Amino acid sequence: MKSAILVIAGLSISCSTAMAQEPQPAPILTRDQFLSYAAGAVVAGMYCGKLELNADFFLGYEYTTGVYPPLDPNFRSEMARVEKDAKSDLYNYCKVARLMFYKGNKPKPLAAPLLVDKQ
């Protein structure tokens, strides 16, 4: 009887500690990553007809970090570089941008949910 009580107590303690552990937080984009991804998403929004920027994600990132891409001096140069690359092969650029940034991807976009369907 004692051993059964000890086994049940041990199991309940191990189960409660396993449930008490918090899940790992999702990876957070660094400032430079966000600026680079934002430039890619803005170019995709300009040239890929069915996509537009996910304003909720942009506003949330700006609110939590204070980074606003259009005012950052590195953003314009990054956007010019990405735009030049996109113009050289627009079809493939839009295809890759959809994989990387489209919010509707299952299970999730490869980089960040920066693009949604135009409404």
Rg for CA atoms: 22 Å
Number of strands: 2
End-to-end separation in angstroms reads 66 Å
Q: Beta-sheet strand percentage?
A: 5-15%
Into which percent range does the helicity of residues fall? 55-70%
Q: What is the subunit organization of this protein? A: single chain
- What coarse outline follows from CA principal-axis ratios? globular
Order of helices and strands: HHEHHHE
- Structural class per helix/strand content? mainly alpha
Going across the biggest sheet, name each strand in turn.
1-2
SS field, number of helical segments: 5
Low-confidence stretches: 16-20
Sheet with most strands: 2 strands, antiparallel
Q: Overall mean pLDDT score?
A: 81
What is this entry, summarized?
By secondary structure, this protein is mostly helical. Helices cover 63% and strands 5% of the residues. The chain has helices at residues 2-20, 31-47, 55-65, 73-88, 90-101, and strands spanning 51-53, 115-117.
Q: Can you give a write-up of this model?
A:
It is a single chain. The protein is mainly alpha-helical. Helices cover 63% and strands 5% of the residues. It has five helices and two strands; from the N terminus they run ααβαααβ. Strands 1-2 form a two-stranded antiparallel sheet. The radius of gyration is 22 Å and the shape is globular. 23% of the residues are buried.
Entry keywords:
about 5% strand; about 120 residues; mainly alpha
